[in-house]
């Protein structure tokens, strides 16, 4: 099968949705399919090398204009020569349209919003362009499927657009079980960060740490013993400013690493994964943390879609609210002091990983592709 994969940027270091695409295309390529990537950028450090056609859009344009130009050029570039066009971008080119984030229409027309902000959205060319792109993306046609990456996204899509003519598949991200951690990797990584080998290290991996709950993590850290530290991988300017403004006793126990595609050593160096996110349609980072054997603390739905896929207390600890720093601090203390709880969570994590294996995700997509091709042939 010849597959065109359309994504803004291809590579693990760009974020969870992008990492989803890389892992899925890896499985499909391994299964014998021909995959061509259409993207604005292909990470040269990505270990998966596929045929690539660049879609160039000048950065001089504002974001909403770039989005329309990208959609137009992607549609033109993929209109012939492929059995399936699989898109992760807003636009109208895809046979399969995978929705990773809160739908534009849900955000601007369904969820509560200040009346003035909603009124101003109607004459806004920016908002209307995004709404128009998404409306074309959702439009029913033969051989077309919209796929949600979580039950939360599926619910939001149906609230925004009503019942879909075809069933709305929900295919959450997968994960590969990490190889057994080598003790020397943990030691070496901690040494590189200047960390004592015996302290408790909490990890947060995010392209935008502020949205993933960094302020709550810092507040919780202030309530925890001095031998608890926090490592933030993916720290941007906003995250550094937030840490700089924290009390000295907190600031000196926070360690920042810039965005990188090589995250595995940091998972291996950590003891607990903290994810009090404010906005995650799914949340691949905590799932990936589980693959490295880390106990996970995360936000509940609707702030974190992944919370709908774990049994609270058995497979992860789930907060009652992402901004309850005292609750996060108590959860960290429970995990670091209760060996029985850690063992219980470890056993639960194995069940989560079994449910989210990438080969199973790829199998579900291939079933969607087969249904699409059957419809196209029939019409």
Task: Provide a brief overview of the structure.
The protein is α/β, with parallel strands linked by helices and about 375 residues long.
What does this structure look like?
The protein has 379 residues and is an alpha/beta fold. The chain folds into 2 domains: 2-174 and 357-378, Glycogen Phosphorylase B (Rossmann fold); 183-355, Glycogen Phosphorylase B (Rossmann fold). The chain contains 15 helices and 14 strands. It has helices at residues 16-30, 63-77, 104-110, 115-121, 125-138, 151-161, 183-192, 214-221, 237-244, 248-251, 264-269, 284-291, 325-337, 339-355, 358-378, and strands spanning 2-6, 9-10, 34-39, 41-42, 52-54, 84-87, 96-99, 145-148, 200-205, 228-233, 254-257, 272-275, 296-298, 317-318. The strands form 3 sheets. The chain has a 6-stranded parallel beta sheet. Strands 11-10-9-12-13-14 form a 6-stranded parallel beta sheet, with helices on both faces. A two-stranded parallel ribbon has the order 2-4. Helix 3 crosses helix 6. The longest helix is centred in the last third of the chain and has 21 residues, at 358-378. The radius of gyration is 21 Å and the shape is globular.
Please render the helix and strand layout as text.
Layout: E1 2-6, E2 9-10, H1 16-30, E3 34-39, E4 41-42, E5 52-54, H2 63-77, E6 84-87, E7 96-99, H3 104-110, H4 115-121, H5 125-138, E8 145-148, H6 151-161, H7 183-192, E9 200-205, H8 214-221, E10 228-233, H9 237-244, H10 248-251, E11 254-257, H11 264-269, E12 272-275, H12 284-291, E13 296-298, E14 317-318, H13 325-337, H14 339-355, H15 358-378
Parallel strand pairs: 1-3, 1-6, 2-4, 3-5, 6-7, 7-8, 9-10, 9-12, 10-11, 12-13, 13-14
């Amino acid at each position: 099968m010849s597959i065109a994969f359309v994504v803004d940027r291809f590579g693990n270091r760009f974020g969870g949705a992008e990492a989803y695409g890389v892992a899925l295309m890896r499985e499909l390529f391994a299964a014998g399919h021909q995959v061509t990537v259409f993207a604005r950028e292909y990470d040269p450090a990505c270990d998966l090398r596929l045929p690539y056609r660049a879609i160039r859009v000048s950065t001089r344009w504002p974001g909403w204009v770039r989005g329309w130009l990208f959609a137009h050029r992607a549609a033109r570039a993929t209109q012939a020569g492929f059995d399936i066009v699989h898109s992760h971008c807003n636009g109208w080119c895809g046979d399969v349209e995978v929705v990773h984030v809160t739908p534009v229409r849900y955000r601007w027309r369904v969820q509560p919003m200040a009346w003035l902000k909603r009124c101003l959205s109607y004459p806004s060319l920016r908002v209307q362009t995004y709404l128009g792109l998404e409306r074309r993306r959702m439009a029913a046609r033969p051989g077309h499927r919209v796929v949600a990456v979580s039950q939360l996204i599926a619910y939001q899509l149906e609230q925004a657009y009503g019942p879909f003519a075809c069933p709305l598949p929900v295919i959450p991200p997968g994960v590969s079980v990490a190889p057994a951690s080598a003790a020397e990797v943990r030691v070496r990584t901690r040494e590189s960060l200047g960390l004592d080998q015996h302290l408790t290290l909490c990890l947060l991996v995010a392209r935008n740490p502020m949205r993933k709950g960094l302020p709550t993590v810092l507040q919780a850290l202030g309530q925890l013993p001095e031998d608890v530290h926090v490592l933030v991988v993916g720290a941007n300017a906003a995250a550094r400013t937030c840490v700089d403004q924290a009390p000295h006793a907190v600031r000196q126990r926070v360690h920042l690493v810039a965005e990188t595609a090589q995250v595995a050593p940091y998972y291996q160096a950590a003891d607990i994964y903290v994810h009090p996110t404010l906005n995650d349609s799914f949340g691949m980072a905590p799932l990936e943390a589980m693959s490295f054997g880390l106990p996970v603390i995360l936000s509940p739905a609707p702030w974190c879609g992944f919370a709908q896929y774990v049994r609270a207390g058995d497979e992860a600890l789930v907060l009652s609210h992402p901004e309850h720093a005292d609750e996060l601090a108590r959860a960290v203390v429970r995990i670091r002091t209760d060996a029985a709880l850690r063992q219980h969570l470890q056993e639960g994590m194995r069940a989560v990983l079994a449910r989210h294996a990438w080969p199973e995700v790829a199998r579900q997509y291939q079933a969607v592709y087969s249904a699409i091709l059957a419809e196209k042939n029939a019409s």
